[in-house]
Amino acid sequence: MLGLGLTLPRPLPTSAELTVANEAAAPARGSCGTWVTCSAAGRGEGHVTRGRLSRERPKMVAAKRALPWLAASLRPISSTAAGSLPKQVKIVEVGPRDGLQNEKNIVPTQVKISLINMLSETGLPVIEATSFVSPKWVPQMADHTEVLQGIQKFPGVSYPVLTPNLKGFQAAVAAGAKEVSIFGAASELFTKKNINCSIEESLQRFSEVMHAAGAAGIAVRGYVSCVLGCPYEGKIAPAKVAEVSKKMYSMGCYEISLGDTIGVGTPGSMKEMLSAVMKEVPVGALAVHCHDTYGQALANTLVALQMGVSVVDSSVAGLGGCPYAQGASGNVATEDLVYMLHGLGIHTGVDLQKLMEAGVFICKALNRRTSSKVVQASSRL
Ligand SMILES: [Zn+2]
Fold it and tell me: What are the residue ranges in the chain where pLDDT is below 70?
């Protein structure tokens, strides 16, 4: 983003120049791309002509001094500047599962329960509560039954749990799960290392779970990992992601969450991958799940929103990583995601203040620093 007070390396383009450039760059009108350019050029007042910029600079400086940062930045920008974006976004909070499962020290069950209860107070519609994996594989999630049964279930909030196989599914249902998630990957080697089977075998395991879920009236969400890169295979072909997504959707998953598990994607690779997947799965059934290893998670999410995706996974305080990909950061912080969405005038139903309090609570309990930029910035103000 260009700041208004920066010395510009070259003159800013005019609105007309931007329009021409964007139309030339965009393969299909309305499907992509105009917002990033407009935003970068005109964050302040939404206009980019050189004359206006220099005339308004003193006014902007004064306004910034007079107004609290948070309130000014959260002002929704005009829909013209934002391009085509959803009016509402469903946030799927994955911190208690995707985040905490990567913590080395076992987190006390009561801390997990308190965190989920605090998150339920924020207005989040979906909170992934835990994972019914074998404690041998993921000791951190060994208390899954106690967590699922110990949390307060808020009306209107879903508490899905991860179930890798039929055994996990049955244990989850016995503990009261009303929704489950299954997880596959677009990479053969990652699947092998993560769940010790081939992609094809993993799909067969899923079909057992899907069958049992259908009989029990339980909704199933599907994760596809490594959609923008794999620690073992490197780049993943968008066609492969589309193929796996299509299979999981055809099996009956109501939603497919596309995970940049190691956080190596860029807005460019996100756009390329989504374009391929959207040919096979309706965009209304897609979610994105971006880890922030290379600092691209918000930008990648924004591209997905521009392409019509309206479900985004995130993790309070940016908790998490990936046990099979050393150095991978957690998901995009939910606080930062909410801040961006509200700044775009997109409805989430989430109370940012309460969310920040939940993030502070878990960071204190884990004795770690928040990965949320919003919380870091706010605590300095
Ligand atoms: Zn993840």
Answer: 1-83, 322-327, 380-381
